[in-house]
């Protein structure tokens, strides 16, 4: 059986991660790249689940690669290298303030406008690009009440690394497995007071919660209903946020996606179906623009899951 993404743990030691951080900080990016290359090659060769998922992803993006196995695996390895570089970008983003020189796009200004309106909202994100850079921007707004709903238990080593090497506060994080009716009331109060709640909308629920099959990059894939039901229940503005590396800078996108304040209860189901597919289409556009920065290294599409069941990991 294919593994659920939350069961795919980290590989490598905390000491090894700290060594990579030291090399990047004290020797520079090119020495870091030279060390990262064999590290990610080891990951690529030893982590079959992630490698097969990456190859399936590239076959969907570029079907011609299915007939070119060497090019396919080279593209997949570059995918792994991009992921390794992003982890170090996360560390850098929390180690020092993110300045305007590091950013491009109008997302920073749009977020400031939303904050100035005094009305909070729910922000949909995905595992594409580097959201830690966007989260670090929150330090520009000391009055901001920001809460991140996420699953952290499969990334304990990396979270510990961030705490040890940066010494900077991260946004308040709430485990998605701990959402209860009382939690929903707390979220409602925070948003009503102008706070923002960030939640990932691109991974199936951990505990078998409600999910929906959507068309994503031309094939059926499973997306969680939870973020959208939460938006309907909280009756608030809904936004999308993304951050991708473009050369030596990061492009921030922050945009209004919908608003459920006037959504009738009887229209929730219809709204959810339309909104979820629209979000999947939006995400597909981002992924096609920056394909190397898609970091869901697990069987994502339904056909892919069925195929992976034939190959025990």
Largest beta sheet, briefly?
A: 7 strands, mixed
- Tally of helical segments: 11
Helix coverage percent: 40-55%
Are there runs of 5+ residues with pLDDT below 50, and where? 1-12, 306-313
Computed Rg: 19 Å
Number of strands: 9
Order of strands across the biggest sheet? 1-9-8-2-5-3-4
Shape call: globular
Cα distance spanning the termini: 8 Å
SSE order, one letter for each helix or strand:
HHHHEHEHEHEHEEEHEEHH
Strand content: 15-25%
Give average pLDDT, whole number: 82
Structural class: alpha/beta
What tags apply to this protein structure?
alpha/beta, two-stranded antiparallel sheet, globular, disordered N terminus
Layout of helices and strands, plus pairs?
Layout (H helix, E strand, L loop, with lengths): L13 H14 L1 H18 L1 H14 L7 H27 L7 E2 L2 H10 L4 E5 L5 H6 L9 E5 L5 H11 L5 E4 L5 H12 L3 E5 L10 E6 L2 E6 L1 H9 L2 E10 L2 E11 L8 H22 L12 H7 L5
Helix pairs in contact: 1-2, 1-7, 2-4, 3-4, 4-7
Write a structural description:
The chain is α/β, with parallel strands linked by helices and 313 residues long. The chain contains eleven helices and nine strands. It has helices at 14-27, 29-46, 48-61, 69-95, 107-116, 131-136, 156-166, 181-192, 226-234, 268-289, 302-308; strands at 103-104, 121-125, 146-150, 172-175, 196-200, 211-216, 219-224, 237-246, 249-259. It has a seven-stranded mixed sheet. A hairpin with a 2-residue loop joins β8 (237-246) and β9. α1 (14-27) runs antiparallel to α2 (29-46), α1 (14-27) packs across α7 (156-166) and α4 crosses α7. The longest helix has 27 residues, at 69-95. The protein is globular and about 55 Å long. The N and C termini lie close together (8 Å). The model is unreliable at 1-12 and 306-313 (pLDDT under 50).
